Amino acid sequence: xxxxxxxxxxxxxxxxxxHQAMDRDALAQTILNLExxxxxxxxxxxxxxxxxxxxxxxxxxxxxxxxxxxxxxESAAARTNSExxxxxxxxxxxxxxxxxxxxxxxxxxxxxxxxxWIFMERFITLDQHEAILGIKFTAEExxxxxxxxxxxxxxxxxxxxxxxxLAAANLARLQEIFASSLLIFRNARIADDQPCNLENLRxxxxxxxxxxxxxxxxxxxxxxxxxxxxxxxxxxxxxDLLNCTLRRPERKLLGYARQWSLPAPYVQQKSVLDDIYDxxxxxxxxxxxxxxxxxxxxxxxxxxxxxxxxxxxVYIVQKERxxxxxxxxxxxxxxxxxxxxxGVYPAVIAKSQLATAGDEQ
Length: 361
Prior knowledge:
The protein is an alpha+beta fold. The protein has helices at residues 15-21, 24-35, 45-65, 70-79, 111-119, 126-133, 139-157, 160-167, 171-177, 198-204, 249-259, 272-286, 354-360, and strands at 181-186, 189-190, 194-195, 233-238, 242-243, 267-269, 295-303, 312-319, 322-328, 341-344, 346-348. The strands form three sheets. The protein has a five-stranded mixed β-sheet, sandwiched between helices. Helix 2 (24-35) runs antiparallel to helix 4 and helix 5 (111-119) crosses helix 7.
């Protein structure tokens, strides 16, 4: 068993204060999660210190004779429930779902099952898109969309760092490789056969936008507000931002493509419409806002204010689900008063979508 460094007792927290602030149920659950392979970062310093203190004897045994049993972990968890430890309100523990069954031959699986094995709940199915967007795909549309999904998966499965684990049927490693990725379908139409553009997204999902009762938003008069998604397509979206403080988005995306051994055109910078669509659909499907980070998300969308002067870039900030759209000449900067990093969220598309994606941007 491998223990993350965050669990080791390196925090300078007095033992008494740790016991007073520690959530004993959370500590017990975290220990049992380790035994089940559900390793997640521990962001609470007091909990991390206490957990390190309780598992240290087990780590010492592992380092000594290499034998570690379930009883050791259960014993450590039980010690957290001693009478001298004051309790407090139980904190919700987010559990990560895994598919631990032996992986089947990938070629024998249906197209959506291939994606589900690797991406788990972060693969948003066509059925989920129908429910979220308020639409119904015809049999011909579904067939075409599944073909597009198969093309994107084929692109991913031949990547060197993916192919070797796929050949070895190493499901855990494949899931780890794509742990920060979301597989989403961008459709050109939404409810009532409306084109999928910013205007209709605001009308159909008002909870994601700030309300302006008297004056319209600055961007409502610009062309990108009514420009729709030109063609439906699948995208692999990374929700770990690429920080653009020192390098521009173009350079960061090029480095991302090289890291994945992908041709540079396969890695796209999102337009403002792509970005907002991804936030809404993933938020509705997962009930979690993966892109809500301390980030000024730079998009590929450019505009000219009053049709004069240099082009300005559109960027997005999301806070407590609400999405704000801003524009600026150059990149937004990190400020002590507003601690948001300039960043970009990359998206990988299949080769068949390159021409269409280029037209959209």
